[in-house]
Amino acid sequence: MAADAWSPTPVLLTVDLVILTLREERLCVLLVERGEDPFRGVLALPGGFLNHAGEEILDAAHRELSEETALATGTVHLEQLATYGAADRDPRGRVVSVAHLAIAPHLPEPVAGTDARDAAWVAVEAVLSGKTALAFDHRQIVADGIERARSRLEFSALATAFCGELFTIVELQHVYEAVWGTELDTRNFYRKVQAVKGFIVPAGSGRKSTGGRPAQLYRAGPQTVLSPPLIRPALAEVQGNEGVEGL
Amino acid sequence: MAADAWSPTPVLLTVDLVILTLREERLCVLLVERGEDPFRGVLALPGGFLNHAGEEILDAAHRELSEETALATGTVHLEQLATYGAADRDPRGRVVSVAHLAIAPHLPEPVAGTDARDAAWVAVEAVLSGKTALAFDHRQIVADGIERARSRLEFSALATAFCGELFTIVELQHVYEAVWGTELDTRNFYRKVQAVKGFIVPAGSGRKSTGGRPAQLYRAGPQTVLSPPLIRPALAEVQGNEGVEGL
DNA sequence: GGAATAGTGTCTTTAAGACACTATCAA
DNA sequence: TTGATAGTGTCTTAAAGACACTATTCC
Question: CA–C1' distance A186–C22 (Å)?
Answer without folding.
Answer: 15
